[in-house]
Amino acid sequence: MPWSPFRKLTPYADAAKQRGVVVHHLNIGQPDIETPPSVLAAVQQADIRVLEYSPSAGYDSYRRKLAGYYQGVGIDVAAADILVTAGGSEAILFALLSCLNPGDEMIVPEPFYGAYPSFAVAAGVHIVPVTSHIGQDYALPPIAEMERVITPRTRAILICNPNNPTGYVYSRAELEQVRDLCLRHDLFLLSDEAYREFCYDAPYVSALHLAGMDQHVVLLDTISKRYSACGARMGALVTKNQAVAEVAHKFAQMRVSPPGLAQLLGEAATDLPAAYFDGTKAEYHRRRDLLVARLQAIPGVVCPVPSGAFYVMAQLPVDDTVVFAQWLLESFQHEGQTLMISPAAGFYATPGLGRQEARLAYVRNTEVLSQAMTCLEKALAEYPGRTA
Amino acid sequence: MPWSPFRKLTPYADAAKQRGVVVHHLNIGQPDIETPPSVLAAVQQADIRVLEYSPSAGYDSYRRKLAGYYQGVGIDVAAADILVTAGGSEAILFALLSCLNPGDEMIVPEPFYGAYPSFAVAAGVHIVPVTSHIGQDYALPPIAEMERVITPRTRAILICNPNNPTGYVYSRAELEQVRDLCLRHDLFLLSDEAYREFCYDAPYVSALHLAGMDQHVVLLDTISKRYSACGARMGALVTKNQAVAEVAHKFAQMRVSPPGLAQLLGEAATDLPAAYFDGTKAEYHRRRDLLVARLQAIPGVVCPVPSGAFYVMAQLPVDDTVVFAQWLLESFQHEGQTLMISPAAGFYATPGLGRQEARLAYVRNTEVLSQAMTCLEKALAEYPGRTA
């Protein structure tokens, strides 16, 4: 079982803070956006005498309202197609356990969400990476490359769309290529759509928007980012494939029920007006524009414009972003500040890839981002391992 | 992956209710005891702007207070030994994933908690049952029988103490036999102590009270029953074995954090006065006494007196409790009432065992229990499959 790839940096960040240095955390996906007060109020004003188990699949009322939410984004599912989970994390675990047998393989475009390898270990399955490249803005790898790695053990393709860590939003054409591949080889398409609401330039296309894929798609979802409620641990596994739904339901029965208080929160969130997202999306959009503009202005930095989520992947003019990230925390400060970034090696399965790339999250306000970018600019000018 | 063994009865219960029959649910471990209002208030009055991820191991403040709670029950652990989990369920899963490799074996006295086989499937490990018998009040099976089934793949013994479903509380002498066995064969002792607070006649002995076992014990815990907060999904994995703690922590990082709101609840619960348990324990004690007295008064029923938890296992004078449980829902009523019981076959791994036994939970008040016992008495008099 692997450690989180980013854990090694934490002691250096703690040490920097103890020296009085302000560390701007661009390494994590924890937004500073307020959790909607009306949503918290639903929990805080609920009349609860006994906090009982909910049904294993989640409260019926919440599942019905979630179905309404999905209908609102053009995903035609019913309450019965939805299994409420403890965060998107549990949805990922249940999907792997339900769709793959131990020893089976799953194709995943890399760079990918850093926790996927741990879920693969937990479920006893193998990740087969296919590489996206910064030169192509981290677009979907050529479908022929994905087809080439299919073996008799391949059971699924796992995508994250909009993508963490790249911010890339897959186009309908790309998703239709993936669909055709899944149909040709009878593969599941596990689609992690945690960042659905955050598409700035590109239209959002869900795996469940694809015609002919009802029996193949398992959607992995969470309210963590949608409503800035990461700590609630409230997610969903959505599929119209009844055989998969049935197995996933057995895993849900195993742990009796998903978190109860968080379901009240999730249900209240479905009552937010559609305009709620206008505000948060506009805020992230501003942040992205600032972060990308500042990155592109730094000599030697290569940074595609990400169309979604709230991450930027940048290529830095350094020997190794693992070394650089540690140096930022250990040996650098500018006016009492520094920043923490995520070295991209942790997002790749292929050894050696991502050594010059890092992920930066724009989950802090523009003032913080601006200060962090000034730090990065100064740091790259000073860094002894600078390469370009 | 197996279905919950009790799922088949649910449609019959629903149908009975639709016919207007009152179904007394003695089949489930969902107490009617009020969740302490001060504990709910801690969540409901919390000042939350952004519901952020907690640390993967849980909030430090909660872990420190949990350590204090454990110290209070004579378990000498520090905050660092505690991993906060999404219910006891996640603690069970993480323990299996952390202590056993796929294909390894785990010895479990049967009858056992009905979800253990599902966790074993999820973790890819095998349950090796050793049978407890009603004739011995479901005491620990002879240690020689447990030793006989040890193979090179055996890595752990899993016990539930106080026991679900039998209510048996293992004595210190029994636990010391288990300890010696674990030490002789270098096995982990996974100890599910969800019902710690509910010992009526026997003293409670934790696996972590056993000398010399610090490197072997993994305690699986939950606040579900302790504070009647099943829906919170708040548990803990506790171990002084640093290697196990480290691997479990990696699984915790995989799912980022345990439920946040429920941690506030759990933390507030540690502030309840020790006298809190006097009230709930006395209530369950009354219920046990009533249920056991009523069961023992029914001709042909065999019912040991359980010393802990809130379950009774009884042998009924019927052909098959699966058939009888369905008949109770489908074909029987007494003054518009019937009851739902858990056929014990679902608690055994050995095929054919438990066919005359059923588990009855005393999680409803004495009036309900009394009505349910009247139903059972009448039902057994009428049941066509009666055997004695």
Automatic annotation (TrEMBL), chains A, B:
Coiled-coil intervals, chain numbering: none
Keyword Protein biosynthesis among record annotations: no
Gene Ontology MF annotations: transaminase activity
Keywords: Aminotransferase, Pyridoxal phosphate, Transferase
Domain spans labelled Aminotransferase class I/classII large: 25-331
Cofactor(s) demanded: pyridoxal 5'-phosphate
Pfam families linked to this entry: Aminotran_1_2
Similarity remark: Belongs to the class-I pyridoxal-phosphate-dependent aminotransferase family.
Protein name in UniProt: Pyridoxal phosphate-dependent aminotransferase
Lineage of the species this protein comes from: Bacteria, Pseudomonadati, Bacteroidota, Cytophagia, Cytophagales
